[in-house]
Design a protein that fits this description.
By secondary structure, the chain is of the alpha+beta class. About 30% of the residues lie in helices and about 10% in strands.
Length: about 270
């Protein structure tokens, strides 16, 4: 009887150990994705005429792949920012231009993706276009990459101007030869934007809104965008001619992480 009890105990112990080991390697169950606050909307629901080229949904960006958290190529903003952008669009349409957004709300997981990429110094696949003159070891120190982004608060966007009628922009083909973002417009990757002096997301001082080397039509284009948007409550980031934040921000101290997807708006498309 004693021997049988010992064997039984040994079997129970072995079974318990097996179950514990199985539990330790079992995949964690994914919880529901966070949702956007009620005051977030798709830009298209406020103004369907504004063009959208959501670069981080595509591999045509400085990382070279779709960025984490971009489930759909959709611009999401706080309603006050979207409505102010709609007013800017109405003014620009009368002058023969349309706005085009490259990025709007950006989840924290996307910012984390940028940080991981910046820390991987061996990954230089997109240097030829997006940071041809900057050593990748300088991206944090020079302010091109940070652990937090105003985009994650929902009222910041990356935007440009397109002359009407808008010409189509061909898709980027991964692996195609790269041309520096600081090259003349006719040499850079084709973009239907007016000439702003650099391409979008160009890590270079030439992207500073008032860089003195940018003159003539390029400077006039930057000023048209800046004057129009700042007249309606947006503030430009001096280091990036494309970067604007609507003020006052509804969520000035919060960095959201819901995915870029219509589902994040819970029916408020």
């Amino acid at each position: 009887m004693t021997r049988l009890t010992s064997v039984t105990r040994a079997l129970i112990t072995a079974l318990a150990a097996l179950l514990a080991a199985s539990a330790s390697v079992a995949p964690a169950q994914a919880g529901p994705e966070p949702k956007a606050p009620r005051d977030f909307v798709t830009l298209r629901s406020v103004d369907p005429t504004i063009l959208q080229e959501m670069r981080y949904f595509t591999p045509h960006n400085f990382v070279g792949e779709r960025i984490d958290g971009y489930h759909q190529p959709v611009c999401i903003l706080t309603r006050p920012a979207a409505e102010a952008l709609h007013k800017a669009q109405r003014k620009l349409l009368r002058q023969g231009y349309t706005l085009k957004v490259y990025d709007c709300y950006r989840p924290q997981r996307a910012v984390d993706h940028f940080v991981r990429w910046a820390e991987d110094l061996d990954d230089q696949s997109m240097k030829g276009e997006f940071y041809p003159n900057v050593d990748k070891t300088r991206l944090f120190a020079d302010g091109y990459i940070a652990e937090k982004s105003g985009h994650s608060r929902g009222s910041t966007l990356d935007v440009t101007l397109v002359k009407l009628p808008a010409a189509p922009t061909r898709p980027y083909r991964p692996g195609e030869p790269l041309v520096p973002c600081v090259a003349p417009r006719d040499e850079r990757f084709p973009d239907n934007s007016v000439d702003m002096g650099t391409g979008f997301d160009c890590f270079d001082t030439l992207s500073h809104t008032f860089d003195p080397r940018v003159q003539g039509a390029q400077r006039a284009n930057r000023l048209l965008l800046k004057d129009t948007l700042e007249g309606l409550g947006f503030v430009n980031l001096a280091e990036e001619w494309w970067h604007y934040t609507f003020k006052p921000e509804p969520h000035p101290g919060t960095y959201f992480d819901f995915p870029v997807s219509r589902k994040s708006l819970a029916g408020r498309h």
